[in-house]
Amino acid sequence: MEIVDLKKWFPGVKANDGVNLTLCAGEVHAILGENGAGKSTLMKMIYGLLEPTAGEIRFMGKTVHFRSPREAIHAGIGMVHQHFMLIPALTVAENVVLGDEPGRIRFDRKEAQRRVYELSEKYRLAIDPSAKVGTLSVGLQQRVEILKAFYRKAKLIILDEPTALLTPQETRELFSIVHSLKADGVPVLFISHKLDEVLEISDRVTVMRAGKTVETVETSSATPQSLANLMVGREVVLRVEKSPAHPGEPILQIRNLHVRDAGRMERVKGVDLELRRGEILGLAGIDGNGQFELADAIAGLLKVEQGQLIFDGEDITRWSPAERTRRGIAYVPQDRQLDGLVLSFDLVENTILRDFRKRPFAKTGVIDRTAASRYTERLIREFDVRPPDSSRKASELSGGNQQKVILAREVSRDPLMLIAAQPTRGLDVGAIEGIHRQLVRLRDEGKGVLLVSLELEEILSLSDRIAVIHDGRIVDIVPGAQATREQIGLLMTGSRGHSEVSLP
Amino acid sequence: MIFSDPEIWAATLSMAVPLALPAIGGTFSERTGVVNIAMEGIMLIGAFFAVTFSYWTGSAWLGLLAALICGGLTASALAWGAIRVSADQTVLGMGINIFAAGLTTFLLNTLFGFNGTPINTPKLPNVSIPGLDKIPYIGVIFQNQSILVYIMIVLVIVSHWFLFHTRLGLRMRSVGEHPLAADTLGINVWRIRYFGVILSGLFSALGGAYLSIGVLNGFTANMTNGRGYIALAAMIFGKWTPLGSFGAALIFGFSTALGIVLQGQGISSNLLQMIPYALTILALAGLVGRAVAPAADGIPYDPRRS
Amino acid sequence: MRSLRSIILPMGASILAILIGGILVAALGYNPVTVYGSLISGAFGTGINIGNTITASLPLIIVGLGIAISFQSGLFNIGADGQYWIGATAAVWFGYHFNHLPGWFHMILCIVVGMIAGALWAGVIPGFAKAFVGSHEVITTMMMSYIGILLARYLIEGGPMQQKGFNPQSPEVAQNTQFPYFTQGLMQSQLSLIAVAIALVAVIVVWFLLYKTTLGFQLRTVGLNQRAARYAGINVKLFTVLALCLSGMFAGLAGAVQMLGVDHRLLDGFSSNYGYTAIVVSLLARNNPIGVIIAGLFFGALTTGGQNMQMVSNVPAALTDVLTGLIIFFVACERIIPQVIGWYRRRRTLKSTSAA
Amino acid sequence: GTGAASNNAATNGSNATNSAGTSNSAGTTNGKTIKIGLVTDIGGLNDNGFNHLAYVGMTNAQHQLNGVSTSVVQSQSESDYVPNLSHFAQNGYNLVIAVGYLMEDAVKQVAKEYPKTDFLIIDDNITGIPNVASAIFQSEQAGYLAGVVAGLVQKNHQLKGLNTKNVVGVIGGQDIPPVDTYIAGFQQGFKKEDPSGKVLLQYTNSFSDEALGSQYAQNEISQGADIIFPVAGGCGIGAINAAKSAKVYAIGVDTNQAYLAPGTVITSATKGVDTAVFDTIKAVQNGTFKGGVSTFNLANNGVGIAPLMQGVPQSVQTTVNQIKQQIISGQIKVSTTVQK
Ligand SMILES: Nc1ncnc2c1ncn2[C@@H]1O[C@H](COP(=O)(O)OP(=O)(O)OP(=O)(O)O)[C@@H](O)[C@H]1O
Ligand SMILES: Nc1ncnc2c1ncn2[C@@H]1O[C@H](COP(=O)(O)OP(=O)(O)OP(=O)(O)O)[C@@H](O)[C@H]1O
Ligand SMILES: [Mg+2]
Ligand SMILES: [Mg+2]
């Protein structure tokens, strides 16, 4: 495939403004770039989801104009989408086979489930084909999204941040799939913000900045630092500088907490935990072990079945989410588009989403738009949200920038405690650096930070203490400084002993 | 007791047909993501052209065919506006309803005068299924019902099977839930939506034809009397499934029949006629509970146009 | 630019509808010029006609505001007709029953009672059923609408509100509650300044409420994303009930205003269909209160113009419905115009590039 | 063929819409054209009832009298009455016809404002305004005669296929005076001839829903009724239709509805709204228009019943004629209150 001077202009934004790329057979080609650099836009054009403003795409020697994904699929292109293209009301099997279903007129449900089961066996992405996608955790949904792309034999595969939600083990499995594709001569376009992954899997890396392809380098000749610098256009600090913590009084005490999820499944099964002022407590665990339900329960979005939450000396177990927010609990939810943002609100409305009742944003029930805008402009500057336009709708931002808006809002609320679920999901290295610095700053100001992350690296590099959750219970709590990858990984499987690490 | 009288069940069935058919049609349309509030108008069109062509050709079946064609065409207009133009589906539907009411009345007056269509217009036959009429109680209910009653029952089952057990049905549902996702899998969202909307037009027209050449043979202005809207409610009540829609239509039919049967005891007819509506609310609150619309219902899909 | 577009496009679409309608009308043997002439002059031709248009648009505007609130809160209130009649009934009852109250105070109370009645009719059963059981509001408001109209009918057809010894109708509301007409000359258009003022105030209130207050912010958040609303600390159930209450309140207000300003009593008929037309009004205005004024006037003009068309051009009423339906359909399709232009441009650029 | 269709229209004296649309004046030989405006109530011209009959009367006048031009408008809501009446008055119409008691307030208001215009209101009695004529119809008398026919036929089983239950069914469109007067008379007339018989009474609350009317009729038929008397506009047509399918009998209303189902419709209770309109137009043309209430009844042939169906014994006709005279002479007083 060859891409020549491709452009895509949205009203007011040049998302792609001169992209040049050559993709050889059997190569894994990584695309790197900051949030909003235009990577997803490029992929969508290749996949027929967006029509280019100008430029040319050549595929297998011919110039192609895909007017719909249908045509791209017929040409043999498969894609894993950054924002999942899943239908929550349908089952896993239905989602995977849709568009190429077994059966003639009748839909052969059994056969579909069998095929999907086989596929998941083959790629070792364990999943129940008959489960409704809407009931799955985002991590499992990521697996479905990947299975979809491999269900149809493609001649070119696009992976737009497929690993953002995978465990390290799952990422391994994915990479072995990629390797076998490569062996079959199928080229792969691979997008990730994780530099180590890029270095490991790709043959060449193209770096994008502000809609333009900046440079294509051989992976073998690149280092994390060189790639990061290329992306951001300046020197980036990859490791978080962190002074020792000075933990104080407990800010949050969790006592024997039991929580059921929306589907009435018990997810948190008796958690006892204490978060102190001035510390970052990392909550590590494999996806689906109740960590996000725990976070939701602390924020008040899920009802507590049993147990107690003591926040800053007060029993908040029965408090409404609004009261908790007012009292000083900040929360970065795991699903930014569903919970964290109102996509058709503009950035001003989204930044005051949690504090719209308070001065200066509102006085006696009347919203002060000027004050809110001024505040939003400030956050946009501080957190480097792009494009820096407070009147833009949240839906028009790239995924990473949406996340920045949520973080900016929560961190700047001057909370007593921050619960951050997957705060850097989908962020570029520069942005991650910024976010991490903010978390540490909060800690140093004497706030409590509960970091819930599937990303072991993130937990290890930030946490002062690490609690490991398995099957709704805390397995162990270890000091952050001494913790090792292996140790935590083992604990995450639920075993305290030293047996082999094996994941479900 | 009135419930032991099979008459009321026969009436229930008969009143349910012109609700169930459009409700099932609406299910198809909304399952693909297009709100069809034009069912009232399409029913009127169906009713009118059924009787007109039945009269002109002398064959009720040709009348039925004409109703289907005209209903399908009207639905195509809705589909065009909703799909090609991405216009607001509710506004389009309301426009079609007003248009249809005007058109049918106008044509009625110009072609037949003010008194409805001629009484000697052929109507669809009433039939009793041999064997079925031998069963003691049930037999009376099905005795001498319009053939459309049986056609409806078949359609209910076929529709349910079609929507939930065929490939095209799966695709329709996927398009109504998340058209972008369906699109990324190579499904032609627009084509499927056209299909769903036109199907709903056919069903609505069939419901209209039932009124004009099924139970009766004649057309009077606005003879649908809001059934298209009730059918919309029945479709939601039935949680956007053909079987559910049919069940809801039966409840409406039954409570209307009940309102008829209870009259004559000196209670104000106005109060008695609240029964169907009150019962519906009760049933909805008590039995059915939360109903979730297809996620993309009513939202135009045009990712590549701007 | 954007606002210009939002005026030009519907106008262009209307013109398209008018052209198609004109061909239809001509095919049926009427002179399209006189037909449309009478439509326009009927709506705007004289002071009285303008008065008629405004009078006809006021209930649509006020009900439309209520509908806009429900849509902005993610709810489809299809039963505004019943809420309108319940509001009207309550206002009339209060208006003739308590006739010893001082004038303006009585008038205000009538309006307030109408608003409360409408709010309760939408809020209590549909609102709570939606919030706590999840019953779909399209069904419940529709059913309550039928029940409301039957109830109003019962009250005057032999029920407690029927004026003794008369045809089925309620007594007239007290003289001091009736809005004075604008001027004697415009009397026959039944235009009253108070009604106009109420509608304008209502528009401003709704606009302010939706876009400037925390209440409106919460309503809109609930309307757009319930999960985010919960995250934002908004009591979704409460605001669901509140949204339907507010929506019904404006329908009830419209009923009260219409009774005090125009009808003065409950007449047996109940077929104004304001509830349904107001849905179109609100949607065409993109649920924006300011836009509701324009859309409301547009439909008021269509109504009065349509009646004039019958009287002046002898066009049957049914044909005016055909034209109205066409116009609504094409106004909804306003987006076809930029699409066609875009398509034409693209074709031209394609041609020029292939030529080059 | 369309022969039957036009036949139909002719039976009803209506010539469809075109007549109103195209011919504005059917000749102006004497040089002076009078303009007549008709305002329907919200029922509209397709009500199969008095709005339509008023229109028929007006159309007849246009065709049969020289120098009459007409215009008609259908009101869409209660609020349209005043503007519509005013419009005609303001534009120099000589006579403005308001159909239905719902327009009472509006007529009073507009008539005072336009004292030079003549007004006619149907089914209402406005007094004390010189330029307003009111036409009220004692349709209870027509109903009474229809009831007598039903009673006689029932009691003696004088038509083929009548059962022995002696039940008749009445279907009202709505519980309002123009409907109820018919029904009240019918009940009394029936009871007079067949005291042991039973009259079922139901209201449909619709004037347009044919299917509903049919369903009501079927319900009454299943309760043994074999003569159905619907007073429900288009909804009633459905009831007659159902009677025909069930091979029982029906009695029409407002106008001779025998054409709807020959062999089913025994007779019809008629109400001469068309005549009233026609006569008033004529009076206006002749300059003899007078305000005040005119009552239309059996005595002046303002109401009546249509010729009996073939097969009804002559004795029935004889009795009907006698009773008609007794009503005219005041020997029989017909109440307007419905027995529920
Ligand atoms: N539909 C749209 N309308 C307007 N602007 C858009 C739209 N989609 C994307 N953009 C803009 O285009 C730019 C590129 O977005 P894109 O999603 O391609 O970024 P990305 O490189 O994938 O970022 P990330 O790493 O955060 O996913 C961003 O500035 C974004 O705001
Ligand atoms: N708009 C439509 N209206 C009616 N039937 C349709 C429509 N779209 C698809 N179908 C039916 O759905 C089934 C699948 O259609 P389609 O042609 O899209 O897929 P396919 O050819 O089986 O799959 P593929 O081309 O992806 O391998 C066929 O039975 C087709 O007739
Ligand atoms: Mg992206
Ligand atoms: Mg195919």
Short description:
Chain A is of the alpha/beta class and 504 residues long. Chain A is 33% helix and 26% strand. Chain A has helices at 39-46, 69-75, 92-97, 109-123, 138-151, 168-183, 195-201, 224-232, 291-299, 321-327, 336-340, 347-351, 369-382, 399-411, 429-444, 456-462, 485-492; strands spanning 2-10, 13-22, 28-33, 54-59, 62-64, 77-80, 156-160, 188-191, 204-209, 212-218, 250-260, 266-276, 279-284, 304-311, 314-315, 329-332, 362-363, 366-367, 417-421, 448-453, 465-470, 473-479.
How would you describe this structure to a colleague?
The complex is a heterotetramer of chains A (504), B (306), C (356) and D (340). Chain A has 17 helices and 22 strands. By secondary structure, chain A is of the alpha/beta class. Chain A folds into two domains: 2-232, P-loop containing nucleotide triphosphate hydrolases (Rossmann fold); 260-492, Rossmann fold (3-Layer(aba) Sandwich), CATH 3.40.50.300. In chain A, the strands form five sheets. Chain A has a six-stranded mixed β-sheet, sandwiched between helices. Chain A has a six-stranded mixed β-sheet with strand order 16-19-20-13-21-22, sandwiched between helices. In chain A, strands 2-1-4-5 form a four-stranded antiparallel β-sheet, covered by helices on one side. Chain A starts with a strand and ends in a 12-residue tail after the last helix. Chain C has two domains: 1-30 and 317-356, no CATH class; 60-297, no CATH class. Chain C is globular. The two termini of chain C are 33 Å apart. With 340 residues, chain D is α/β, with parallel strands linked by helices. The interface between B and C is large, with 47 and 51 residues. One adenosine-5'-triphosphate binds next to β2, α1 and α14 of chain A. One adenosine-5'-triphosphate binds at residues 167-168, 186, 191-192, 195 of chain B.
Mean pLDDT of chain B: 89
Give me the count of strands of chain B.
Answer: 2
Name the CATH architecture of chain B: Orthogonal Bundle
Helix-strand category of chain B: mainly alpha
Total number of helices of chain D = 11
Largest sheet of chain B: 2 strands, antiparallel
What string, H for helix and E for strand, traces the elements of chain B in order? HHHHEHEHHHHHHHH
Major sheet size, sense and barrel closure of chain D: 6 strands, parallel
Task: Describe the secondary-structure layout.
The complex is a heterotetramer of chains A (504), B (306), C (356) and D (340).
Chain A: E1 2-10, E2 13-22, E3 28-33, H1 39-46, E4 54-59, E5 62-64, H2 69-75, E6 77-80, H3 92-97, H4 109-123, H5 138-151, E7 156-160, H6 168-183, E8 188-191, H7 195-201, E9 204-209, E10 212-218, H8 224-232, E11 250-260, E12 266-276, E13 279-284, H9 291-299, E14 304-311, E15 314-315, H10 321-327, E16 329-332, H11 336-340, H12 347-351, E17 362-363, E18 366-367, H13 369-382, H14 399-411, E19 417-421, H15 429-444, E20 448-453, H16 456-462, E21 465-470, E22 473-479, H17 485-492
Parallel strand pairs in A: 3-8, 3-9, 6-7, 7-8, 13-20, 13-21, 16-19, 19-20
Antiparallel strand pairs in A: 1-2, 1-4, 4-5, 9-10, 11-12, 11-14, 14-15, 17-18, 21-22
Helix pairs in contact in A: 14-15
Chain B: H1 6-31, H2 39-57, H3 60-84, H4 89-112, E1 126-127, H5 136-142, E2 145-146, H6 147-165, H7 167-177, H8 179-184, H9 189-215, H10 227-237, H11 242-261, H12 269-272, H13 275-288
Antiparallel strand pairs in B: 1-2
Chain C: H1 2-27, H2 32-45, H3 47-72, H4 80-97, H5 103-133, H6 137-156, H7 193-212, H8 214-224, H9 226-231, H10 236-263, H11 274-284, H12 289-313, H13 317-332, H14 336-355
Helix pairs in contact in C: 1-2, 1-13, 2-3, 2-12, 3-7, 3-8, 3-10, 3-11, 3-12, 4-5, 4-6, 4-10, 4-11, 5-6, 5-10, 7-8, 7-10, 7-12, 11-12, 12-13
Bound molecules: adenosine-5'-triphosphate (2 copies) and magnesium ion (2 copies).
